């Protein structure tokens, strides 16, 4: 299912969402200007490599950079593997992010985004402790935004392209779209975990999506709603 737009109203301009989309686009354009080897070096340097983190926790610094091994938990959120990877992530952020930003306010929304991204990386590391494969992408952070949307706007309608023999365009409730997506990530992550090569091979970081989504569900229940201005007309 491919969401195209939602019908949840907002009353503010989602500056942070625009900024995140622009920043991810700029970083990716920089990535593709690099030659293959420097680009690979960039991904290994600033993507999350679980074995680097776990070795440091156990007192072995594999890279010689000490605590800087933890920096990719943040920087990996702004790197992408391909145009398709980037566009898919930014599309979901564009659809669901503006309403969460409207609800929380710009600063708290940005904090939620970053915390969900960090939690997603931590979950990925937990399920891939010995992996030497770098993980990049904003999908963990965006999964957190989707988790928050799932809690706040379950009844919002999402115009969705549904492939079922043919392509169907229909309005579906947000809880169905996002719930289906989450269950699919969980099942896929479980299937990967029981595959012998699943711990070290490349591919989609399903557990990062699960961790980010659940963190968004939890944080949106904790973070206060932004203060709203009321006029006399509001109370009539």
TrEMBL record:
Pfam families: Rhomboid. It is found in: Membrane. InterPro entries: Peptidase_S54_rhomboid_dom, Rhomboid-like_sf, Rhomboid_protease_S54. One of its GO terms (molecular function) is serine-type endopeptidase activity. It comes from the Bacteria. Keywords: Hydrolase, Membrane, Protease, Transmembrane, Transmembrane helix. GO terms for biological process: proteolysis. Belongs to the peptidase S54 family. This is Rhomboid family intramembrane serine protease. It comes from Candidatus Korobacter versatilis.
